[in-house]
Amino acid sequence: MAASKAAYSSVSLFHEKLLRSNRILAICGAGLSAASGLPTFRGAGGLWRNHNAVELATPEAFEADPGLVWLFYAYRRHMALEANPNPAHYALAELARKKPGFRCLTQNVDNLHVRAQHPSEQLSLLHGSLFALKCSNAPGCKWTDPYNTADPLCPALAPAAEKNTDPTKPLPLLDPSKPLADIKPDELPHCPECETGLVRPGVVWFGEPLDEGMLDEIDEWIEKEPVDMVLVIGTSSFVYPAAGYAERARTEGRTAVVTVNLELGSAQGRNKIEEGDFGFEGDAAVLLPELLK
Ligand code: BV8
Q: Where, by residue number, is the active site (predicted)?
């Protein structure tokens, strides 16, 4: 590590750098929403029953068992609707209002940045949203519903919307000892336009491309002027292309890469640590309001 340990975690040096920074990029991950009660992907909460969330977030899983994948997403929609933005979401939205040169890229699909009133022109939803719907015949069929909060989306998915009456017990849906309802495709919503495709969550699954127009716009933003600071918040920096932006945006000798993580070591980032970088270990919901004030 080129940076001196003391400088690396100095809040006062960070505040000086922030004051001088106009172009700031944030890359956010599931750890940002942990304080809102939403499980992360790879942490302890990352396992959904005995399924690994990453295995369910694929077109192949949806093809093989759309009912199971929809139960997973209906559950996450329900959780996200019950959750609230936390102080970290509000601190980022406030930074966006103070610094027009700030841009937030989030991997999170929980809509909490939007509910924290983050200015939309300074926010990129890299992996889409739990509350967007589209036809599984896309791109052939263009039908989408950009914002749908029906909970449950259809009667067959009602188990995902059950209120947790006894918080000391897992929701029946989450209790691996209880068999999951076997939902047939004809019990799931079909596209109102083409009438043949199943409706699917408007998220980017593993193996699917991110929105090209959005990627081009981010590249243009990064390339137009040097970036002063990259905030890497609550992400294991494991998923690409999101994880690659910190190094892509770095200008040697100018850009400070600032990692905010509950376990600094866990950020499996490819990010090197350079002179001028910062690292702050703890809950983003506690650290960010202090760092960005
Ligand atoms: C694509 C939506 C190309 C769905 C998600 C290059 C190199 C290697 C691999 C690839 C590569 N390019 C592409 C790949 C393959 C793949 C990939 O990256 N695989 C990984 C597993 C290696 N990438 C893709 O498939 C991408 N597509 O590149 O397409 C292409 C081009 C043309 C044609 C076809 C294809 C698509 C990736 C998007 C996948 N979708 N989400 C859904 O959400 O259900 S990704 C999913 O993981 C979530 O979005 C999640 O946010 C994201 C990343 O995880 P994290 O957010 O980092 O969460 P994680 O749990 O891992 O970590 C939490 C962190 O927070 C931890 O560090 C923890 O310590 C910390 N933390 C916890 N609590 C707190 C905290 N920090 C602070 N405070 C706290 N309280």
A: 127
Distance from residue 58's CA to the centre of ligand 1 (Å): 12
Q: To the nearest 10°, the Cα dihedral for 230, 233, 237, 238?
A: -150
Residue 101, C-beta contacts closer than 8 angstroms, at least 6 positions apart: 22, 23, 24
Answer yes or no: 15 catalytic: no
pLDDT tens digits, one per residue of 191-209: 999 999 999 999 999 999 9
Kindly give the distance from the C-alpha atom of residue 192 to the centroid of ligand 1, in angstroms, as a whole number.
31
Count Cα atoms within 13 angstroms, Cβ side, for 181: 19
Query: Annotation-wise, does 28 bind a ligand?
Result: no
Instruction: Name the 3-class secondary structure at 49.
Output: coil
Summary mean pLDDT of the chain: 92
Phi, psi torsion values for 137, nearest 5 degrees? -90, 5
3-state class (DSSP) for residue 76: helix
pLDDT at position 110 is: 98
Distances (CA, A) of 169 to 49, 160, 173: 14, 15, 11
Q: Is 279 in the pocket of ligand 1 (CB under 6 A)?
A: no
**What pLDDT is recorded for position 51?**
72
Tokens of 128: 């889409």
ipTM of the complex: 0.95
For ligand 1, the distance from its centroid to the CA atom of residue 250, given in whole angstroms, is: 20
Q: Is 191 annotated as a binding residue?
A: yes
Distances (CA, A) of 121 to 51, 93, 103, 118, 240: 36, 11, 8, 9, 23
34 pocket-lining for ligand 1 (C-beta < 6 Å): yes
Query: Rounded to whole angstroms, how far apart are CA atoms 217 and 78?
Result: 32
Using CA positions, which residue lies closest to atom 75 of ligand 1? 31
